[in-house]
């Protein structure tokens, strides 16, 4: 293997081997830009060093050969002679990592060479400043000495000299500082600061290798899901000096504004400075535009180079440069990070400039960025009172009075008050309160906790797992880590994009992108260019995608919004939501019925209500498919809680007949594992008339709409099927009802009947099931639970944290589909289903339908559509387009 590449040998696509910095230094060199010569030691060498604990022999030789070539080329020797060569040793992994070792500059300076450097440059001060910087950086990053020890001496020197910045220190003062710094090194390492230039370089290289496994680096990689086995490259680069007086300096710049994407000159410059001075904030930098006045020639050259780089990378670049006595040098470039808004604007600008095509533009933006743009934001400059932080679970900015329970949330919201529901954690009972609240704050749980999942589904702001907060619902107060007590009714603001919690009301700015999707802002010459960029990219995605996008919606209001957002139908209407509230009592009557007569009466009371629901839904989605799932959850969910009911009855002097019957029913229906119990198709098979009532309501509503001249397109979906026999029975019953209603009204009803595929057995026998199904909809939530054998409601709190921490999975399988496990069942079932019935329609509903990575998977598997909550529809559209290009 080759361990070392000269800057003239590499190129930008070798990031795996040369790291991002090395690959781009090589690329700039190839482009003929002024890059100080140097070479890059590969990540292979780093991995080998970390594996064996020492430098491979071949590496040492190669470094020697490249150093000799560099010396030859520069006509100088590392740290020796009249004109000593100095180098920087710079880390640089494939992904930029703030947790890594810093760069060491001025390597090669010694007690001997410092004099030569001074003579060569004709500047004593400069030479001693460079030497003290070397010992300071080397001491801190290579020898591991506390950085403050050096900083304290520097402060003292400034104080002694009566100056405020280090440029004002004289050569003599800096020379004294160098002595003090060398003392620190001796005291803390028991040896002298190394006077052999090559030893300095080798130690710095090893320190970069070792920093790969430093604690901060490991932590950063875990958070960013960067693999631990990549290793880092090391760049050895000949020094150029920005600290050679007022005609020298160093700066950073962007080829366009990374915050907004707008074109212009963005950056900072610092005269007479080296390396980190610009970002360290020791002295005040000037805006890059000032450089035009300070050094017009270098400024003009920099602008030319910026253009070259943009045209070459065809993207926003960020740049680090240094000017040495009027000569410009490029020290780094990379495709720059940007905000979501900038990403959309830049993608469109680059199409217009002819730099990228439409496919490439779609690759440059993501659904996650789009999600970001859809939420309102807090005004960043408002000086808000930050009191706590948690996990940014569902983006947005919410303000409201603190409430600690659902009932209070509902009551206060009904009075027109904005509230934030604060809970230790939420559960299904909190649904009403969550709906009523502006936002949800919990002190426990992660990104897949109940609060987070439900809030994202509703497009509601949520901060969860704010562990430093003490939530005392009984006392109706909340205590921050700093001991501040916030009582019920006090206003707080929560930022679901950053996870921050503020006391008091932080002003909010609305999102123009959301207004665009809602249809209240139209694209056009008058509109914000961000709206136009989003519109353009959404149109490109819609043209490109093969996957249709449907909505999970149960109400006409949700359906209408989904349609505005671009939904092509409803992929999942959960009918159980229609049995809540006042209708719960009717379901109770159905469950308690002791005779056919009683049961029929209860069903007859439910029928017109259901029919009304469907009529509204078909109206909102006229002309588009509406997949109605028959009732799915265990029946006991519609009954009171066993403990509560027992207590209530125990307290009654003479319990009523009905109460006793109710208690008996609750006992009878109690299940240890309700999610694996009497629910879905199983209910339809054992509670006579329940499914047929629902089918009747659907068919009646459809028939009447049809007679009224509309175009209703219902589809009936049977949940939790495990075997084709279940489906056959239910399907026969359903078809009989549909035929009857069709005859009654004299209209032809063409209502497909299909099934959820959400049990492993269903997936494994999909070929048989397809004989009785017009379509499959993969219920990947339940399928994930049953394939992994873990309960979504429990695992999040008990061990997901540990699993994520240990890297068993990088992301919860409830958030992104587990392609290897659950996904391979989906793939197999799709193939088997289509083998039986080539025209079988295939879709997916559930959380995964709106998750970017999962959408790409469903595209690859060849499904026909994904279905997700209304707020995720634009994201699914964009990602489906990206997947297809
Ligand atoms: P980081 O990864 O933190 O950006 P760099 O390796 O880019 O670290 O080094 C930080 C800064 O040090 C650079 O921006 C540049 O100003 C300075 N620097 C690095 N190498 C040299 C060099 N050979 N000559 C002059 N300055 C250098
Ligand atoms: Mg840098
Ligand atoms: Mg299910």
UniProtKB/TrEMBL annotation:
Ranges where the Pyruvate phosphate dikinase AMP/ATP-binding domain occurs: 16-54, 57-284, 293-342
Keywords noted in UniProt: ATP-binding, Kinase, Magnesium, Metal-binding, Nucleotide-binding, Pyruvate, Transferase
GO terms for MF: pyruvate, phosphate dikinase activity
Domain named PEP-utilising enzyme C-terminal: residues: 533-881
EC number: 2.7.9.1
Enzyme class: transferase
Catalysed reaction equations from the record: pyruvate + phosphate + ATP = phosphoenolpyruvate + AMP + diphosphate + H(+)
UniProt xrefs under InterPro entries: ATP_grasp_subdomain_1, PEP-util_enz_mobile_dom, PEP_util_AS, PEP_util_C, Phosphohistidine_dom_sf, PPDK_AMP/ATP-bd, Pyruvate_phosphate_dikinase, Pyrv/PenolPyrv_kinase-like_dom
Cofactor(s) needed by this chain: Mg(2+)
Pfam family, one: PEP-utilizers
Residue intervals of the PEP-utilising enzyme mobile domain: 417-499
PANTHER family according to UniProt: PHOSPHOENOLPYRUVATE DIKINASE-RELATED, PYRUVATE, PHOSPHATE DIKINASE 1, CHLOROPLASTIC
Similarity comment text for this entry: Belongs to the PEP-utilizing enzyme family.
Protein name: Pyruvate, phosphate dikinase
């Amino acid at each position: 293997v080759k361990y070392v590449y000269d800057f003239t040998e590499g190129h930008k696509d070798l990031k795996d081997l040369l790291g991002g910095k090395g690959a781009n230094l090589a690329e700039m060199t190839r482009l003929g830009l002024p890059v100080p010569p140097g070479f890059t030691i590969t990540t292979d060498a780093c991995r080998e060093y970390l594996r064996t604990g020492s430098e491979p022999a071949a590496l040492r030789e190669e470094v020697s050969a490249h150093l000799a070539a560099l010396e030859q080329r520069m006509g100088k020797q590392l740290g020796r002679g009249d004109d000593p060569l100095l180098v920087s040793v710079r880390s640089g992994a494939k992904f930029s990592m703030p947790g890594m070792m810093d760069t060491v500059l001025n390597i090669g300076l010694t007690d001997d060479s410092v004099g030569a450097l001074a003579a060569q440059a004709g500047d004593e001060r400069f030479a001693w400043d460079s030497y003290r910087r070397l010992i300071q950086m080397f001491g801190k990053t290579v020898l591991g000495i506390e950085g403050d020890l050096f900083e304290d001496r520097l402060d003292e020197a400034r104080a002694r000299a009566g100056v405020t910045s280090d440029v004002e220190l004289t050569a003599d003062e800096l020379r004294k500082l160098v002595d003090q710094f060398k003392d620190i090194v001796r005291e803390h390492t028991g040896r002298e600061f190394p006077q052999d230039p090559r030893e300095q370089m080798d130690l710095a290289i090893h320190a970069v290798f070792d920093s790969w496994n430093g604690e901060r680096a490991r932590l950063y990689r875990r958070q960013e899901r960067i693999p631990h086995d990549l290793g880092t490259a090391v760049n050895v680069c000949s020094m150029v000096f920005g600290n050679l007086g007022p005609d020298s300096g160093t700066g950073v710049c962007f080829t366009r504004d990374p915050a907004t994407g707008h074109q212009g000159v963005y950056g900072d410059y610092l005269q007479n400075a080296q390396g980190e001075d610009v970002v360290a904030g020791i002295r005040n930098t000037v805006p890059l535009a000032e450089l035009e006045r300070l050094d017009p020639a270098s400024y003009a050259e920099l602008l030319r180079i910026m253009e070259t780089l943009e045209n070459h990378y065809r993207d926003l670049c960020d740049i680090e440069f240094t000017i040495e006595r009027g000569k410009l040098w490029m020290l780094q470039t990379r495709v720059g990070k940007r905000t979501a808004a900038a990403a959309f604007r830049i993608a469109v600008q680059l199409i217009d400039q002819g730099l990228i095509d439409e496919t490439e533009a779609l690759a440059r933006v993501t659904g996650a960025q789009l999600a970001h743009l859809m939420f309102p934001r807090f005004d960043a400059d408002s000086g808000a009172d930050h009191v706590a932080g948690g996990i940014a679970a569902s983006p947005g900015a919410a303000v409201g009075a603190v409430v600690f329970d659902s009932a209070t949330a509902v009551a206060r919201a009904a009075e027109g008050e904005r509230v934030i529901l604060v809970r230790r954690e939420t559960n299904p009972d909190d649904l009403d309160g969550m709906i009523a609240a502006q936002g949800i704050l919990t002190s426990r749980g992660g990104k897949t906790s109940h609060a987070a999942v439900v809030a994202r589904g509703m497009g509601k702001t949520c901060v969860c797992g704010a562990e430093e907060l003490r939530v005392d619902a009984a006392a109706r107060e909340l205590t921050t880590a700093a001991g501040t007590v916030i009582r019920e009714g006090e206003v707080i603001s929560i930022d679901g994009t950053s996870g921050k919690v503020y006391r008091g009301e932080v002003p909010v700015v609305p999102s123009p992108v959301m207004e665009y999707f809602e249809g209240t802002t139209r694209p056009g010459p008058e509109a914000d260019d961000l709206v136009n960029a989003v519109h353009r990219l959404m149109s490109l995605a819609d043209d490109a995608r093969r996957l249709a996008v449907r909505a999970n919606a149960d109400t006409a209001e949700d359906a209408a919004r989904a349609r505005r957002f671009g939904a092509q139908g409803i992929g999942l209407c959960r009918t159980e939501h229609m049995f809540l509230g006042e209708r719960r009592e009717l379901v109770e009557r159905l469950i308690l019925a002791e005779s056919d007569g009683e049961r029929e009466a209860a069903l007859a009371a439910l029928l017109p209500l259901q029919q009304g629901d469907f009529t509204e839904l078909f109206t909102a989605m006229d002309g588009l498919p509406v997949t109605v799932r028959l009732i799915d959850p265990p029946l006991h969910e519609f009954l009171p809680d066993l403990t509560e009911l027992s207590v209530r009855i125990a307290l009654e002097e003479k319990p009523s007949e009905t109460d006793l019957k109710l208690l008996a029913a609750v006992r009878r229906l109690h299940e240890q594992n309700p999610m694996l119990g009497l629910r879905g198709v199983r209910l339809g098979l054992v509670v006579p008339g329940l499914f047929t009532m629902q089918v009747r309501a659907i068919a009646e509503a459809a028939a009447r709409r049809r007679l009224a001249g509309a175009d209703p397109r219902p589809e009936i979906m049977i949940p939790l099927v495990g075997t084709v026999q279940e489906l056959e029975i239910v399907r026969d019953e359903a078809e009989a009802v549909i035929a009857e209603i069709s005859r009654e009204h004299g209209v032809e009803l063409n209502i497909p009947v299909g099934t959820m595929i959400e049990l492993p057995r269903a997936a494994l026998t999909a070929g048989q099931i397809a004989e009785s199904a017009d379509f499959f909809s993969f219920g990947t939530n339940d399928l994930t639970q049953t394939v992994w054998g873990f309960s979504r409601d429990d695992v999040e709190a008990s061990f997901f944290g540990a699993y994520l921490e240990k890297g068993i999975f990088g992301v919860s399988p409830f958030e992104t589909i587990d392609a290897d496990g659950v996904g391979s069942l989906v793939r197999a079932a799709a193939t088997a289903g289509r083998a039986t019935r080539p025209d079988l329609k295939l879709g997916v509903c559930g959380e995964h339908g709106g998750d970017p990575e999962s959408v790409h998977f469903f595209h690859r598997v060849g499904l026909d559509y994904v279905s997700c909550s209304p707020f995720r529809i634009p994201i699914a559209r964009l990602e489906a387009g990206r997947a297809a290009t």
